[in-house]
Amino acid sequence: MHLLMGTMMELRHLEHFVTVADEANFTRAAERLFITQSGLSSSIKALERELGASLFERTTRRIKLTAEGRRLYEASAQVLKAVEIARQSVSPADSLSQHTLRVGSVPAGAGVELAQWMRKLYRQHPGLSVELTVRARISELLDMVLNDQLDAAFVTMPERAPTGLLCQPLATHPMILACHRDHRLAGEVSVSLQDLADEDFVDFADDSPTRLANNRAFELAGITRHVRLTCDEIQMALELVAAGVGVALAPRPLAQASRAHIVSVPLREESLVWTSALAIKPGARRSPVVSALLQIVSASEGRPNDDLHRQMDDTSAPTAGGLP
Predict the structure, then answer these.
(1) Are residues 268 and 177 located together in one domain of the fold?
(2) What is the mean pLDDT of the chain?
(3) Is residue 320 part of a domain?
C-alpha cells in the first residue's frame, strides 16, 4: 500500500492503470483519458518500473491483467474511491460559486448540444458564470485557448491541432447536400458527388477544415467544382442556399434544423463527415471549471462520469480530422 499512497504523479498512474484494465485496450483507454496512446503507454511502463512487476499480458489482439495486475487493480480501486470520498468531504455544495468558465465556439462548433450543455452546467452549478465567445475562425479560437484567453473551445475537428493543444472529437455527423426546395435535385432520395459536378457551391474559406475536406472529396472523385461564394459561417451559408445562390455541403443536423426553403439530400459518399471537437490544454483537468464542463460533455457522450477527473495528462498534446 505504501507504493499506492505516494505522490500525485503515482496516483495519476493508478488512474491510468485502472482505465486500461477496464477497457482492456490502450486506444480506448487513451480516448477516455484525453491523452495520447504513447503517453498512456509511458505512464503504465513507469508504474511497472516503480513496482518492479508486469501488470499486463500484451498480445497483438488484446491485453489482460497479470496476477500482479489483478492484485493491484483491487487495491487501486479502493484507493481511488477513498480519494474521491475525501475530495467530496471537503468540497462546498457548489465549489464553482464565484468562478467563471471562459468557453469559445465556432457558430456550429457543438451543434445544438451547446445550449443544452450550458443549461445542465447552470443547473448543477448555479453560482458559476460563463463567458461564451463565438468566432467564425477555428484558428482564432485555438489560439485563444493556447494563450489562456479561453479555458476550452468547441470547434470543428482541425486537421492538425497546434502544438500544446489537445482536440478531443465529440460527435460525427454525415455531410448532406443542402439545396433550395425548387432545385433539380431536391426530390432525389440521395445524390453522389458526380451529380454535383455542374453546381454552383457556397462553401467556406480556403483554409477551413470543412472546405479542405470537401475539396479532397471532389478531387478524389475526379471532379472540378465551381465555388461561387465563400463565407465564414454555416448559418449564413444556409441563408444563401435558401435564397437560391447555390448549393452547399453541410452537417445533417444543422441543415435539417435550418430554414423552410432548404431541402436536405443524403450523399452516397458516406465517408464525407463533419466532426465536432473540444479543444483544451493538456493538464486542464486541474481547473475546476474545465472539469465541470468535461463532466457535462462526457455524460452527454455516454462516458462514465467517474472518468472525468482522469481526462487530461500533462505530457499529452496530440495532433488532431472536418466547419468554421
Answers:
(1) yes
(2) 81
(3) no
What pTM was computed for the model? 0.62
Q: What is the span of the domain harbouring residue 18?
A: 3-90
321 within a domain of the structure (yes/no): no
Q: pLDDT of 158-185, one tens digit each?
A: 877 788 898 888 888 899 999 999 999 9
Spatial distance between the Cα atoms of 229 and 248, rounded to a whole number of angstroms: 10
Helix pair 8-23, 67-90: axis angle to 10 deg? 120
- The one-letter amino acid at 316: S
Q: Could you tell me which residues come within 8 angstroms of residue 187 by beta carbon, excluding any fewer than 6 positions away?
A: none
Given CA atoms 116, 28, 288, 316 in this order, what sign does their dihedral have?
A: negative
- Which of these three, 90, 111, 141, is where a domain ends? 90
* Amino acid at the residue 30: A
Q: How many domains in the chain?
A: 3
Q: Do residues 105 and 245 both lie within one domain?
A: no
In SS3 terms, 138-175 reads as HHHHHHHHHCCCCCEEEEECCCCCCCCCEEEEEEEEEE
